[in-house]
Records
---
Amino acid sequence: VNDALVIDFTKHLNSILDYDADAGTATVQPGLVLDNLNRHLKSDGWWYPVDVSTASRATLGGMAANNSCGSRSIRYGKMQDNVRALTAMTVDGTTRRFEYADTTQALDADMRTLARQEQNEITTRFPKVQRRVGGYNIDALLGDAPHIGHLLVGSEGTLALTKSIDLKLSPVLGTKTLGVCHFPTFYAAMDAAQYIVKLGPVAVELVDHNMIQLGRDIPQFRPVVESFVQGNPAALLLVEFAETPEENGKRLNELVELMGDLGFSWSDTNKATGGVFKVEDPAFQARIWGVRTQGLNIMMSMRSEGKPVSFVEDCAVPLEHLADFTSQLSDVFHKHGTDGTWYAHASVGLLHVRPVLNLRQDLGLRQMRAIAEEAFDLVAKFKGSHSGEHGDGIVRSEFHERMYGSKMIRIFETVKDRFDPDAVLNPGKITRSPKMDERAITRWPENYAPQTPDTVFDWTAWPGGLAGAVEMCNNNGACRKSVGGVMCPSFRVTGAEKDLTRGRANVLRLALTGQLGEDAFASDDMADAMALCVGCKACKSECPMSIDMAKMKTEVQSARAAKHGVAMREKLIAALPRMAPIASAFLPVSNLALKFGRLFGFDKTRRLPNFQKPYSGPETGDVLLFADTFNRHFDPETLHAAERVIAATGKTVGVMSVSGRPLCCGRTYLSTGQTDRAKQELQRTTDAFRAAQDAGKTIVGLEPSCTLMFRDEAVNLIPEWSEEHGAQILTFAEYIIQNPPAGLDMSGLDVLVHGHCHQKALGVAQHTVDAVKNVLGANAQMIDSSCCGMAGSFGYQSETAEVSREMAELSLAPTVRAAPKDTVVLADGFSCRCQIKDVTERKAMNLAILMDKALQDHVTNH
C-alpha cells in the first residue's frame, strides 16, 4: 500500500451513529463491519444489501472506497446505489458532508463544471455495464441530481478521509429458494446466464469445476459439496429467487423448463447432460452459499508455488457476450501456458477469474503483463469494464488509459489534483500509478529467498517447507471476524492486527525471508507477535488456508529456547507432569507453595488449582484410561467418575502406565519450546498406546488437549504413529456414544456445553452435546463461544491474565452468568473449568461427572 501511515478505522471508529427503523436509514462509522451492522438491523426487518462474500470482516468504509457490489447486485446495485451521503475530511482539514452537489461550495462547483465540460467524453468512454467502478465516478455529477458524495464512493481513499456514511437500507429478503443448475461445459453455463436472468432471480453465481474439486478435497467443505453437486459437472450456476413461496416455486419450475429448452435436463440415471437441483430448505441453502462465499479461499488452497493471481479477476462484459469473452480469455491463458479458476457473479457478467502463475519467477511477471494486456483488449472489444467491483489499486490503475483514453486520464488527474494537490492520500492509485508488475511492489521483492530453519514439525507437505506453509496466508482476513467460531480470540480482545493469524503469518513470512534482519525468527519482536496466541488451533480448521499458527508458534518457541534458553517459570510449567506426583505426596506444603506463584511470574489475582490426592487404578482392563496430569492430580474425581461409568457399560477398566509411571502427552514441554523433551514423552506414550492397541485394548482420554494431541501433533512428530493410531484414542464422549450405558435418564435437565478449542478444531466438540442428548435425554446446547482464555498456563501468567479474562468475557462468561442456576454447565477441558469458576463463580463439570451422577441416580432409583 506504499510507504505510508496506515489508518485502521476498525479499532475505534466502528459504531452505528444513527439508525431510523421507520425510514430505513443508518449512519455508520467507516470501521463498522458489514455483518455487525446487519446483525443489529435484522430484528427490525432491515439489512444492508451490498452482500459481499467477505461480510464477516469487510468494513462499510472499505466497501464505499471500492464501490463494492455483492452476489445480489442484480437487484440492489452497488455501494453507489445504496449510499445517501458521506461525511469526510479533506486534506486541508475541512470536515463536511458530501451529498447532492452544493454549487455554493467551490469544490462542488468545480467538479460540476468539469463534468459538464467533459460530458461527451464521459458518456462516450464509460462502458454501459452495471459493474463499472474504474476511475472516478465523475458521471455522478451529470444529470439533474448531481451527487458529489458518489464521486467519493469508489475513490479508494485518494480524495478524502471518510468519517461517517449515510446508508439506504432494504427490507430483508423473505422466503428464498435455490436452483443449482448443472452444466456439462463451461461455455454452456456462460451462455445460459443471459436467459436465466430474465426469470427475475436475485442472484446467479458461478461455481466452476476447479472450485468443486478443491471443495471436495477440503474436509471443511467436502460434505456440503457432495450433498448438492450431482455427478461431475463442468460448471454450476446457483440461481436464487426471493419472492413469495408461491412465486418462488413458479420461477423454480420455469428455471427447470428453461434448462430443458436449452438441452440440460437430466434423469435419475443420467446426470451427465446437466439439470437443476432444487433446494428449498433454508439451512441447506445457507450451507451451499457458504461454499460459494469461500470461493477465493477454496481456490487459493492450492499447495503449490503457482497460485491463482488477482489482476484480471474483475472484468465485466454484457451478458450476451459473456460466453464468447470467457472462451477467448481461456484461450489467452492457454497461449501463455496456464489456466484460470472461475467463479462469482454471472448475473451481471462479472467473473472472478484468476490465472495460476508463480510470481516468484520473472517468467510469472512477464506472463501477468501479457495476459493483462490481452485480457483488457478483449474487455474493450466486448464493450465491458476492466474494473467491476474490486477497485483499481495498483494492479489496474495503469490500464485506465488503455481502457478510457488519454483525455479521461486527464479528467481523473484533474479530480485528484483538486481534492489532493500534494498527493498525500493513497498516492499511485487510480492516477499516476506505477507499473503493476514492478517486482518491488510485489510480495516477492528482489532477492526473495526464504530461509529453511531446522523445524520441529514436518512441513514437507508444503512446497518450501515452513516458509511455504506460512506463505499460504493470502491475507483474506477471515481471522478478523468478531463473532462465530473461535478464531481469533486474541484479536477479538485487542483489535490489533499483530494479534491475529494474518498478522502473525506476515511477521513470520518477513522474518523467514530476511526482511526483518538477522535472527528475526527467534527475536524478542517475534516473541511479542506470538505472545497472545493461545494455541487454540482455530485457524487450523476455520482459516480457509488452514494456517496452523499453533504449530508455527511452537517452531518460534523452540528456536527461542535453543537460542536463549528457557525461563524458570516455563521450566516449572513444563515439568508439571514430573513434579505433580511429588507435590501430591506433600499436599499441605505443596498447596501452600502455590500461594507464592507470583514470585515466578504468575498473576497474584489468580487462584492456582490445588493439588488433590491423585487418582490411581488398576493397570489392566478392557478399557484403559489415559489419566492426564491435570485430572489425575487436580480433579481426580473426574477419572473416578469415568471409571464407574465405563464399568457400567460392561467393561473392566484400568489406567495406562509404564512400570508404574504415569504416561504424558508432552504438551507442557511442547508449549514452552522444549521440543526434544516433548518428543521423548510422546515416544514413550505412543509406544505404550500401540502395544495396548495391538492387544485389543480400548484407550479413552478425559482431557481434550492431551487426548487430541495424538490425532494432531503426535502424527507429525512420531514416525511410527499414524492417523489411524490417533483415531483409536477415544474421547470420553466418543466412547459413551459408541457404548451407551443403559437406563440413564436426565430428561428435563438443561445443559450448556462449552467446547474445548481443540475439540472444535478437530471436529469432535459436538460429541459431548450428542452424548448428553442421546444417552441422557437431557436438553443440551453448545455455547457459541471463542476460547475460554485460560489456555493452560496463559491465564495464570501475570502479563496475560487480564487478556485471558477478557477472552472469557467475549461470550462464554456472559452466557454462563445468564443461565438459570439449575442449568448444568459442562466443560471437558480442565483449564476451561478453572476459567469458568474464576470469572463467573459457577462450577462447570466434565461430561464424566454428569454421566456418573445419572448413573448414581439410576442405581438409587432401581
---
Amino acid sequence: MALHNSLNGRYRPLLNIPCMVDRSYTQGMGQHFSLRNASHIIGTGSNFGYVSSFIHEQNDERELTELEDRVNALKEVVASEESTTEIMSYSEDELLRIYEDLLAPTTMPSVQESQPVQDPRAQEKDSEAVRCIAERLLESDALATSSTSTLSSQEYRPVITRLQEIASSVETLRLSVPTFDSKDKMNQASPAEVPIGLLTNAEWSSLTRTCVTANDGSAAEAVLDVMKRFGASNVDECAIDVLSLHASAGDVASVEQCLQKYAAPSLTDVHRDLHVKAHAKATPPTTFPTSTLDLLHHYEALGTPAPQKSYTRAITSLLSTQSRPAQGLAQAWDLFAHMRYVAHPQPDVALYTLMLRACSHRAVPAEPERALDLFTEMVVDRQLTPTPGAYAAAAYAFARSGERRYVQEAFRLAKEMLDANRDARGRSAFAADRRLFGALLEGAKRIGDLTRTRWILAEMVREMTQRSGEQEVLVNDLIMTHVFHAYAAFKPPFKRSATLIVDEQAPSEPPSLVQAAEHGQPPGLSRTETGLPLTSQGSRFSHIPPQSRGEVAREAKLLFTRIVEDTRAAPSSLDGDGDTIASRPFRHVQLTPRLLNAYLSVHYVHSSFDEWSGLYRTLFDELDVPRNPKTYVEALERCAISQKSERRMALMLADEIWVVWQGIEEAWRTRDNVQQDEAIKMIDARLVERANAAMIRILALTKNLSRALSHVRAFSDHYPPSKLLRISPKHPLRSSRVVLSGAKPLVRLTSTVNVPDDSVPPLLTFNELEVLHHRLLAVGDRVGLGYLKWLCKAYENFLRERRDATMRAIPEGSDSEKPDDVSQPSHES
C-alpha cells in the first residue's frame, strides 16, 4: 500500500499528461488510443475512471467537430447553388430575346442584280473630301466653298487639272535627278520611281467615286492616270469603280481600254465579270448575244473561266432576246449544262432561280417536271436555302402548266414558303410578294378557280394595308388582268336550262340579285347608255362566288368600276395612312390595253352580244386607252362563236373590225415603222392566223361563201405555201458537230428536234377551214372544195419539207461541216 501511494505520488504528473495533449494529437491517434492501452501505460487503480471519462469527452468533442464540419460543408454547397441559381435565372423578356436570336432567319442575298444605291451620307463624305482637296491644291477657295449640288459638275474638274500639272512637274523633276545603277554608273534614261503621297488613299477613292457618281467616265480615267503617275497604291480598287461605270453603260471599248491600262495582264474574276457585263449590256434585246458567248468561251480557252455571275448574265441575255426566242431558250439550257461541265459544277441560288424561270418561258409550253427536278436538286441534293424569288419561279412554272395537280403543287409550295423559318413570335421569314401572288393567280385562272382568285386578291389588299403600301405587294394592272381572266374562265354552277319552272304565281317582290344580273341590270350601279358603270354606290361582294353568268358579269363590272374610281381619284386623296390605302386599294392600277382586254373577255363569255359589243365600241374611247392588235383579234374570235340569232349583228361588227385590222396586218407584213410602233411589235404569225381564221369562220357561218373563198385566196396570195421553205440559217452555236473544244457548248440539254421553229410564216390548216369546207360541201361547190383541199395539202407538205430542211440545215460560216443526217429528203407523194 505504501508502495502504491509512493508510486501514485511519484507518477501523478503522468496522470495529468492527457490534459496537456493537443487535440490534434488525440484525433490523430484515433481508435488506437484505446482504454486498454491507457490502462497498460498508466496502470490500474483509482485513476482509471478519470482517464476513461477524459477519453469519452475527447470522442464527443471529435464527433461534434466532424458534425460541425459537415454542416459547414452543406452550408457552402447550398450557398454556391443559390448563387448559381441567381446567375442562371432569366426573365421572360430575356428568354424571348434569346429565342428571337436563335430563330432569327438568315439574311438572304437578293437574286435580282440591282445598281448599288449611293448612301447620301457617303456622297456627302466624298464631297467634303473633294472640297478639302480643293482647298489644299487650288489657289482660290471660291470653288472650295461651292455647294454640294454643283460639286460633281464644277469642282472635281479643276482639282484633276491641278493634279495633272503637279504630276507633270514631278516627272520633270525626276528626269533632272540622276540615278545610279548597281555598278555606280549614272543612268539618265530612267527617272527615280518614288511614290509621292500627295493624297491619301481615301482621298483618291473619294475623288474617283465623285466622278463615277457624276457619270463622267473621262474624268474618272483621268484620275486613274494621275494616280498611276503618283504611284498610288489603290489604283486597282479605284479602277473597279470606273470599270463598273463603263460596263453598266455597255461601253465595251472603254472597258477593254481600262483593262489594258490598269488590270492587264493578270485579270481577276471581277475584271472578267465586268468585261462580260459590258458585252451583255451592249447587246440590244433584238439581237442574239453572240459576242457575250464568244467572250465566255474565250476565257474558257485561256484556262481562266469567268465567274458564275458572268454565266448568269449571259443566260439572262439569252432568255431576254426577242430575236428567235426559242433558240435563245435552247441556247440558255445548253450554256447551263456547259457551265456545269467546264467551269462551275455547282450553281448558286441565283442561277437556279433563273433556270426555274426558264421553265415557264413564253417561247415554249411550261415544263413543270423540269422545274420540280431543279427545285428538288437545289433544296434536297444541294441543301441550299431557296429565296422568295426561287419559290415564286417554281410556283409560276407549276401554275403555267394548267394541270390541276401542278397548280395544287404551286399552292403547296407557297404554303411551305410562308410556314418555313418562323421566328420566336411565329412570324414567317418570307413574306408573299407580287411575284408569288401572280404565280398563284396564274394557276387559279387556268383551272377556273374563282374562289381562290377572290381570296388571293383579298389577301393582297390586306397585305398592302398592313405594310402601308409597299411596292412589292401593290396591286397592278398585271394582277388585275389575271383576276379578270379568272372571271372569264369561271363556269358558274347555275344553269337556266336546268332550273325547274313553277307555274304558281309568287307574290310581287323586287327583283333578286340573280334576276337583275341576268337581265343586265345589276343593282347598286349607275350606268351609261353603253353599259360602262360610273359609280359603285356602296355595292359589295358576296362571301360566296357568283352563281350565274349574270352575277359573274356584275361582279367583274363592280370590280372594274372600283379600279376606275381609284385611278381617277384626286392625287391629294391618295396621300395618307393605312386607312387611305384600304379605301383606295387599286390606285396604282394603270388602265392599259391589256387590262381592258381582260375585262372585255369576261363579257365575251358571260354577257349578251348587245352588252359586250357596246363595251367594245365605247370602253376604250371613254377611258382614253388605245386598242392593241389583240383587242381586234379577240373581238373577231368572239364574233366567230356567236349564237345563231346573233350572227347577223356579229358579221356587221366583224366587218368594222376587219377594216382596221387590214391596215395593221399590212403594216406588219411590209414591216413599215416596225421600230417606232409598239403595237406592230406585238403581232406575230400566229396572231395573223387567228384573225384570218376567225373572219373566214364568221363569213362561212353567215353563208357568205364567195366572200370566204375570196378571203382564203387573198390569204394564200399574201402568204403562199412556198414561203414556208424560206428557213433562217442555223446559228453557229447550234452546230451539232461533236468537238472537245471550241466556242460553243460541249454539253447540251436540247437537240434540234426539241427547239421549236418560231419563224414559221402564217398558214391555214384544215381545222381553220373546216366550217367553210362543210358549207361548200352542203351547197355542192366542187371548185371551192378542190381549192381548199389543194391549199391545205400544200401548206401541210411545205411545212413537212421545212421541218426536214431545218433538221439538215448547216450553220452559218461552216460550209465544210456536214449534217448529222446526210440522207436526202424523199419527194414521194
